[in-house]
Each structure stands twice: as structure tokens, then as C-alpha cells.
């Protein structure tokens, strides 16, 4: 039986969904692993003789933040290429760069072996990761939403966020497994390297998928159209960054920074801290795709507002519950699972919301910069800000205040957004198109 045009379109959409999202999975797997092994990396790379543990952890998070601050550079560089020459070549380039840099981290010499060269090499590879990650999001979300069937942008875009959850879960699972089967000495000596080295076969698989990817019809049709004024694009970037600020900050606080916080502040063991992140990431993963699908029915703003408001209200009570030694582990696990689920309400509709802010010929650059800038400041700096502020103030509630404050800003950005007839946010540079079509 000869495939119909509709069948071929469905196959292309699904291929784009897989090829677009797999790079994001690898990216967040690595960023999760780096966050989960932050205390070990601090001891191996940032603790010369006489250095303190707190100082080393701050330096580790500074390296973590540096990679995030190179994301906007990567978003501008690769986004511009994606809007000029196409989404497909850029996605092939960034997955190659990410895979190479991450694999090399697993082979780096430590401070004991290479001295001051070791943190320098680690920081350089983190910069390369930041550049590639900055180009990954804009290209991948553009591909997924431009290939999405009518009325399914939220659902297709949510898979980009879903692979964040899968990547963080994979990183948490790998770290927890190693912490269980290896001794603390083995984990510190060589076991921490294994999750980074695993990136090589994962990245080669992703590269193979992207080599078989078609260019998007929207880019072929409208890539050379006249670009909107720079002021309008800049305004849309600022609006998008504000709307996802809470997603960026709360997500990293609850899903990545939590293990080091539990160890350094609440005296949990490394294994206990890692296990605590599993229900948080499970809750996050479970809600993302349903939230994206729901946003196709109710609008992006409604679903994302609900998630941001819940973080504002529940962040402090949640952290106080974790601090209470009289609360059972089951209750604490359910609480962190709920925290992850609330973040998923923002993450599910977020990619489609950003894609709808920009027309085709500036979409890679615009949505990539909005996402990268927000994540550079509010995700990449989360561990550094929280750790340093706790050290200076002695307040163990800082993570909750940080998540709640950033989500409050997102509430304002989302609440003030105009709506289209279908209930979806409409930005100044959004181009008109048929119902359900990203243009």
C-alpha cells in the first residue's frame, strides 16, 4: 500500500521529534551528572592543599555557572546559523561538539595529577558545552514545533522538556547506582568518570538520527523572508526570558542543586541525597507531556501560570518539611515528587510558548537566546547563589526563597501577556498563520 501524504507527514514529524529531543537528553544528562557529582568534582579539581570544602564547592558551581553564561553566546552564534542555513546542519554540529566535550571530561587529569591545569581544562570543556547547549535548544525546538501537526505544538514542544527530565533521571540513576555498587573511595578515584564517558555512544546514536533528518518545511518556505525589526525581537526575547525564569530557577533548585544542599546543609549522605532527587525528577517527568497537551487546549499561559503560582505558595513549606527530622522518608519523597510535578507544569508548555513568540526567520536565534539568557542567570547561578548566600546568612531556607521569588516574576510576565482567541500568548513579532501552524 502506497503511503499517503498524511502518512509521510506523520513519519517526518515523529522523526523530527526524536532527532530534535535526543540531543537535549544528552545535554541534561551531563549537566545533571555534573551537578550530582559536584562535591566529588570539587574535591578532585578545586581543592588544592589548604583549601576548604565550602570554597571548593563554590568554585565548582562557578564553573557550572560559567558554562551557562556561554549558552547565550552559543544561542546567538548557532541560532544565527540556524536561521540562515537551516536547522539540520546546526543540530548536527552542536551534538558533535557536546559529545566530544562531555566525553573528554571523563578522561581529564585531576588536581593531584596536573595541578592548576586540571581546573583550567575542566572549565574550558564546560565552556564548549555551554556553547553547544546554547545552540541545541533553539534548533531543536524550531524543528519539533515546525514539524508539529496542526494543534499539537504544545505536545511536540513538551518533548524537549521531557527529555530534560529523562536526562536528569538518567544522570541521577547513574550516580545513585555508582554510589550503591562502589565504595566511597572507588567513586572518588575513578567511578565518577564513568557517566561522562557513557556520553560517547549516546552522542554517536544522536548524530546518526540527525544525519537522517529533513530540513523543516517552514524554513524552506520562509527562511529568506524579511526579518522583523531588532527592537521587536529584543522585546520578545526579554518577555520570553521573564516567562520561563521561574521554570529555570525552580527546576534547577529542586532537581539539581538539591543533592548538594542536602549534603552540605542537612548532613545527608551522598547516597541519601542522590536518592532524594529520583522522586523529584519522576514527578517532573510525569507531568511535562500532559501539561504540553493541556496547553494545546487551554493555552500556554493558563498552564504555566498555575505551575508558577504553586511554587510561590509551596516552596517554603516544602523545604521546611525536608528540614524536619520527624517527618517520614515516604512523606518527604512524596513532597519532592510534588515539587518536580509543579515545575513540569511550566516546562511542558514552555518550548511551544517560546516558539510562538518568533517568526521562522528569527526563531532559532530568538527562542534560543530567551531560553539561554534565563538559564544562564537563574539556572547556572542557582547553586552558586544558594551556596554562597547560605554561607553568608546562615539561613537554610534560601533555596525556597530563591525559587519562590523567581516564580513570582514569571507570574507577572505571564499574567500580563495578551491572549489570542484560542487562549495562547501572542507576542509583538508573532506572524499570522493558519490555526495550529508555527510560522
Automatic annotation (TrEMBL):
<dbReference type="GO" id="GO:0015293">
    <property type="term" value="F:symporter activity"/>
</dbReference>
<dbReference type="Pfam" id="PF07690">
    <property type="entry name" value="MFS_1"/>
</dbReference>
<dbReference type="InterPro" id="IPR011701">
    <property type="entry name" value="MFS"/>
</dbReference>
<keyword id="KW-1133">Transmembrane helix</keyword>
<feature type="transmembrane region" description="Helical">
    <location>
        <begin position="233"/>
        <end position="258"/>
    </location>
</feature>
<protein>
    <submittedName>
        <fullName>Putative Integral membrane transporter</fullName>
    </submittedName>
</protein>
<keyword id="KW-0812">Transmembrane</keyword>
<dbReference type="InterPro" id="IPR020846">
    <property type="entry name" value="MFS_dom"/>
</dbReference>
<feature type="transmembrane region" description="Helical">
    <location>
        <begin position="366"/>
        <end position="386"/>
    </location>
</feature>
<feature type="transmembrane region" description="Helical">
    <location>
        <begin position="303"/>
        <end position="323"/>
    </location>
</feature>
<dbReference type="InterPro" id="IPR051084">
    <property type="entry name" value="H+-coupled_symporters"/>
</dbReference>
<feature type="transmembrane region" description="Helical">
    <location>
        <begin position="329"/>
        <end position="354"/>
    </location>
</feature>
<feature type="transmembrane region" description="Helical">
    <location>
        <begin position="270"/>
        <end position="291"/>
    </location>
</feature>
<keyword id="KW-1003">Cell membrane</keyword>
<feature type="transmembrane region" description="Helical">
    <location>
        <begin position="90"/>
        <end position="111"/>
    </location>
</feature>
<keyword id="KW-0472">Membrane</keyword>
<dbReference type="Pfam" id="PF00083">
    <property type="entry name" value="Sugar_tr"/>
</dbReference>
<comment type="similarity">
    <text>Belongs to the major facilitator superfamily. Metabolite:H+ Symporter (MHS) family (TC 2.A.1.6) family.</text>
</comment>
<feature type="transmembrane region" description="Helical">
    <location>
        <begin position="131"/>
        <end position="149"/>
    </location>
</feature>
<dbReference type="GO" id="GO:0005886">
    <property type="term" value="C:plasma membrane"/>
</dbReference>
<dbReference type="InterPro" id="IPR005829">
    <property type="entry name" value="Sugar_transporter_CS"/>
</dbReference>
<keyword id="KW-0769">Symport</keyword>
<dbReference type="InterPro" id="IPR005828">
    <property type="entry name" value="MFS_sugar_transport-like"/>
</dbReference>
<feature type="transmembrane region" description="Helical">
    <location>
        <begin position="161"/>
        <end position="182"/>
    </location>
</feature>
<keyword id="KW-0813">Transport</keyword>
<feature type="transmembrane region" description="Helical">
    <location>
        <begin position="194"/>
        <end position="213"/>
    </location>
</feature>
<feature type="domain" description="Major facilitator superfamily (MFS) profile">
    <location>
        <begin position="16"/>
        <end position="421"/>
    </location>
</feature>
<feature type="transmembrane region" description="Helical">
    <location>
        <begin position="398"/>
        <end position="417"/>
    </location>
</feature>
<feature type="transmembrane region" description="Helical">
    <location>
        <begin position="61"/>
        <end position="78"/>
    </location>
</feature>
<dbReference type="InterPro" id="IPR036259">
    <property type="entry name" value="MFS_trans_sf"/>
</dbReference>
